[in-house]
Design goal:
mainly alpha; 15 helices; 79% helix; globular
Length: 378
């Protein structure tokens, strides 16, 4: 990591600002009475991100640094559009621009880390390191987001200022890193429907993990806020959830776990299924269940990417092709989950949503095992 400290610093600041933005935005939509529009915006973001994955090779002829700078500027603009929480069209536009730009940034980051991993003796550790950086940024970002909002409930003006400041900080990230070593252009024509059975399995797996993440994670501040209605407590619990996610990332990053990605993905889905179904019957346990989920949630990102990297290595699949199909499927699942969860939270008790999420984990665990059990991918 020390060799690439400029890139890791950029990556940390990027996720720090994204975390602050996500935290204050979901509360802003909730406090202004338009949480449904947040779900719509999030869905539009995920769908446009999926489209970007499929069309990325047409813009990848640009120099990587230039492409990254354009994406950062557009992402900052998309954040400011969310100030218009009352407008469905503005929410959709914000999501579309945010999805196109964030996906471009994500592709560049993943390819850069894969480039680092290919020159490192412990490649799984490098792939996992991304999530440790992400979780560190999310811990600090949640705390800073709470501080920027202030102590009072319904402090919409403070949230608006926070969104503008964070958007400006994202745009300022164009100042570094000075050097990006990876080239995003691929001479190979991207073919999503190749009939490659391993890519098809990756599509189905990523779709499921996108759903598992988006049904809960983006709405954690809103879940706590709906139960407690106190910004201080919401900030404290959301911070606790990010700290637990950080601890989870560090634990997962240990070699003996990262090298057994398939096994621990299955165990996590089983554990979450049991916890959410049991927790749905006991209101007093709901906060504890969400915190336990936060600890386990990095599995759906971290071990998913380690698993995919192992598939790339074993079956000699093109990296850009793998990232394209994986992220497209993940973002499609992502686009479906949060709007459904946002609607469900508005229309039904939280206990019903928890019961449904537990059942979904069981179903997806069975499908995932059916897809990969015979391939002996760690």
């Amino acid at each position: 990591m020390t060799k690439n400290k400029s890139f890791y610093l950029f990556f940390f600041l990027l996720y720090l600002f994204m975390t602050i933005g996500s935290f204050v935005q979901v509360l802003y939509f909730q406090e202004t009475g338009h949480l449904g529009n947040f779900g719509i915006s999030y869905g539009a973001m995920a769908i446009s991100g999926a489209v970007m994955q499929l069309s990325f090779r047409w813009i990848s002829a640009l120099k990587t640094k230039l492409l990254l700078n354009i994406a950062l500027i557009l992402y900052g603009m998309s954040m400011t559009l969310r100030l218009l929480s009352y407008s469905v069209s503005a929410s959709i536009l914000s999501g579309v621009i945010g999805g196109l730009s964030a996906t471009t940034i994500l592709i560049i980051v993943r390819l850069q880390l894969m480039d680092f991993a290919s020159n490192h003796e412990n490649s799984n550790k490098i792939i996992s390191s991304r999530f440790i950086v992400v979780q560190l940024a999310e811990v600090l970002g949640t705390i800073l987001g709470g501080v920027m909002i202030g102590r009072t409930t319904n402090n919409v003006n403070n949230i608006q200022i926070a969104i503008i400041v964070v958007a400006a900080l994202v745009i300022l990230l164009i100042l570094f890193p000075k050097k990006i070593t990876v080239k995003v252009h691929s001479e190979r024509k991207l073919k999503i429907f190749t009939g490659n059975k391993h890519l098809i399995k990756i599509v189905l797996s990523s779709l499921m993990f996108g759903l598992l993440v988006s049904l809960v994670a983006p709405l954690i501040p809103a879940i706590f806020n709906g139960m407690l209605h106190k910004i201080d407590l919401v900030t404290a619990l959301t911070t606790a959830s990010t700290v637990l996610a950080l601890i989870g990332s560090i634990v997962i990053g240990r070699t003996n776990i990262a090298n057994k990605a398939y096994r621990f993905l299955v165990i996590t889905m089983l554990a979450m299924g049991v916890l959410f179904i049991v927790g749905s019957h006991f209101a007093a346990l709901m906060i504890l269940i969400i915190l336990l989920y936060s600890f386990a949630n990095p599995v759906y990102f971290q071990l998913k990417e380690v698993f995919e990297y192992n598939v790339i290595q074993k079956y000699n699949i093109d990296k850009i092709e793998m990232i394209a199909v994986s992220q497209t499927a993940f973002l499609i699942g992502d686009s479906i989950g949060t709007p459904i969860a946002g609607w469900f939270m508005s229309a039904w008790p939280l206990s019903n949503a928890m019961l449904a999420y537990g059942a979904i984990n069981f179903v997806f665990m069975i499908i995932f095992m059916t897809l990969w059990q015979k391939n002996k991918i760690l």
